[in-house]
Amino acid sequence: MITRIRRAFCEVFDDPRLEINEDTSPRELPAWDSFAQVKLLLALEEEFGVQFTPAEAAELYSVGDFRRALEARHVSA
Amino acid sequence: MEVSRLLDSQQKLRPRTKNGPHGGALAAQRVRALEDAAATLAGADPGFARQLAAALAAPEADAARWLRAALLERLGDPSAAAHELAAISPEPEADAMRLTALCRARLAAGASDEAVEVLRDAVRAAGSYRLQAANARLLARLEREGKPAARRACRLAMVGNATFGLLAPVLRVTAFAAGIDLTLYAGSYGQQAQEILDPDSPLRAFAPEVVLLATDWRSLGLSEETSNPDAAVAEALAGLRALWRQCRERWGAFVIQHNFEVPETTPYGRLSAAAAGGRARVLQRINLALEEAVAEEPGVTILSLEQAAAAWGKRRWSRAAEWQIARQYPAAGALPELARRQVALLRAVLGLSAKVLVLDLDGVLWGGVVGEDGVRGITLGNSGPGEAYVEFQRYVQALGRRGVLLAACSKNNAADARAPFLSHSECVLALDDFAAFEANWEPKDANLRRVAAALNVGLDSLVFVDDSPVERAWVRRRLPEVEVVPLPSDPSEFVAALDRGRHFEALLLTEEDRQRSQSLRANAAREAARGASGTLEEFLTSLKMAIELHPFREEDLPRIVQLIQKTNQFNLTVRRHGEAEVRRLAEASGNYTQTLRLRDRFGDSGLVGVMIAARSDGALWLDTWLLSCRVLGRRVPEAAFAALCRYAQATGCRMLVGEYRPTARNASMAGLFEQMGFTCFETASDGVRRFRREVPRDAEFPACFTIRDHTQPASCPVGR
Asked: Which of A14, A38, A56 shows the shortest C-beta gap to B328?
């Protein structure tokens, strides 16, 4: 799953060599602003075929958050 | 093991040809290499190997090519990856992704020109925001290596009460695919009034040519029910009009105004539209009032967001999560569609809309092959499967009636191709709906060139519809300027497929547009008459041409501005003045303005000529001189010029100065001034050449015209 999440991050931040881990958050990635957040939501939704709710969208602000939200939807790797 | 089983099954399925398109039989050595790779993979990561085996299931060859391309790209061999991707047979759903991947690989391999070519197709094919954003990133990378050629550059400012961070790159790449190089100014959320009205705002330094006013229904602050709806409509309109006026007066900018989506959810239900002050009703009234207002303000046009949202589906058009986090409206998913509509309108504003629809016949206007099935055997009619073709013909005919030129281009015997139009009772289109008709066995690119030449338009004004993917691919390759419609196989989807491209977007419908098809038929009759008369002079006289010249008049301004915006061929200076500038030039003291209308015994061509000459130091400078290509070859330029000379003479002007600014399309005008007795006195570094001549005494109108000249000072006699 982390490979597919990473693909979305690489795309959104336009950096094919971007490395991420569970704790990657806007603090380490200054480019992670509200636009990037919308782009990440879209990319991950398309990648995994899910929909995030507005409440989630406002709270998912680290790679680990995204992974847990996806797992809660029983998305398999 | 999965992978080897898969290979086994492929071995059985595939015929053992030696030089087949996919390499044919596998040699034992290659099988062993694959077996080894599979063993390594399955040993190292069985879960992953299972995934790979699943991904390689049907259609086998293309899946293997994708895999190979992806491996090669990651191993640093993009040109080999591009080779693989280019060889994959396009499947409609996956093709957008393939084109984007192909563009990326070509770019990485250093083949920028090929990358540009495929990027245009990728942008047209992309449906999702994610893919279009990827295309936008590719464009940004391409531009770092040098700007791709564009038909037109344009400075566009977007302002309004949404954020534009996501729209901007998508809009740029969509414009790029339409041949427009956009420089963008993205306004801040909700700052449209300040940015436009404040004389010190950064928008002023940007000096936009086009302002996109993306206001949405929230910005109007309407409650579910308004107590004084008339005042609400008037207030909304007045607010926007003030902004338009600033944009036009301050920068001479053209304004594209979004109208207002009527939100789908309302506690009032149907009462929202039924009650006098219901929000849906007030919004619809405002939308109507906007259209009425721009009918009187030629520098402004409306993009119907209401229509766009409805077509997209209002439940998907906006999304609470995106609005709350980033003030994103509409939803990012809808941005590629919105950008397409914006660019279609922008093309119209810049005079780049297509003008001619070129249609294949068999399989497009009817089912079957008329040359084999006969007129009775083709599928066409008001019931059953023939209905789809009737519907398509109706759509096409209506396009023709609003001014789009129609042309036929069919591989057929000429008589066979014409037969259904002459003798099939359910055929909607008639032969004289077509401005050009090419039915022969030559390649289609040759026929398309002929159509463009016969109608005096550039290849980039053509839109081509053909049911054969082979012909479409051929035309795309040979004539990349021509827009090729991706036609689905089901004829009942033809109308939607053609409509979706919005190729023929126009800002206003003038009487000339309605008459154009009429006028073209008359042109064909004129050509026939040319054959009948002897000398050119006799022919011209036989046309009984009448010219009416006027200074610029208020009622002609929309047509004048339209001609200035879109005339390419007989246009010596190609200065695309907006309406405000035209007005200024017309009102300046001592300037000469002229409109030219032409009638003959076959019909009225309407207002087809515009001239502006500015007075300076006792000379008249030809700022703008253009004629519609419909009237070329008929001595019309001489008549227009004679009127200018007479005016110059009567007002004590001694010198005429002309200028030729070369473009890709007006090369045939390069020698015009010399023909008119001018001499060149200056050639600028950008190729602009300036000419002058003394004002001739007693300039005469060519004898083949009856002239009514209202452009002369009151005391002078008027024409013949």
From this structure: A38
Neighbouring-strand partners of residue B604: B599
Beta carbons of B549 and B495 less than 8 angstroms apart: no
3-state secondary structure of B406: strand
Query: Rounded to a whole number, what is the distance in Å from the CA of A33 to chain B's nearest CA?
Result: 9
pLDDT at A77: 52
When pLDDT is cut at 50, 70 and 90, the band that residue B13 belongs to is very low
Counted across chains A and B, CB pairs separated by less than 8 A come out at 46
Separation of alpha carbons B136 and B121, rounded Å: 13
The mean per-residue pLDDT over the stretch B666-675 comes to: 84
Cα–Cα distance measured from residue B236 to residue B221, given in angstroms and rounded to the nearest whole number: 10
Confidence label for B9 from pLDDT (cuts 50, 70 and 90): very low
Closest residue to B325, CB basis, from A11, A14, A58: A58
CA dist., res. A64 & res. B608, Å (int) = 67
- Would you put residue B546 in left (φ > 0), alpha (ψ -120 to 50) or beta? beta
Question: Of B284, B267, B193, nearest to B233 (Cα)?
Answer: B284
In whole angstroms, give the CA distance from residue B433 to residue B404: 10
Buried b (16+ CB within 10 A) or exposed e, B454-490: bbbbbbbbbbbbbbeeebbebbbeebeebbbbebeee
Cβ-defined contacts of B9-13 (< 8 Å, 24+) = B10/B60, B13/B60
Q: How far apart are CA B15 and CA B31, in angstroms?
A: 16
Pick A42's closest partner by Cβ from B163, B324, B333.
B333
Q: At what angle do helices A34-48 and B129-144 cross, to 10 degrees?
A: 120
Is residue B48 within 8 A of residue B41, CB to CB? The reply is: yes
Contact A11/B130, CB-based, under 8 Å?
A: yes
For residue B503, the Cα-to-chain-centroid distance in whole angstroms is: 5
Q: How far is B96 from chain A (nearest CA, A)?
A: 15
CA of A65 vs chain B CAs: smallest distance (Å): 16
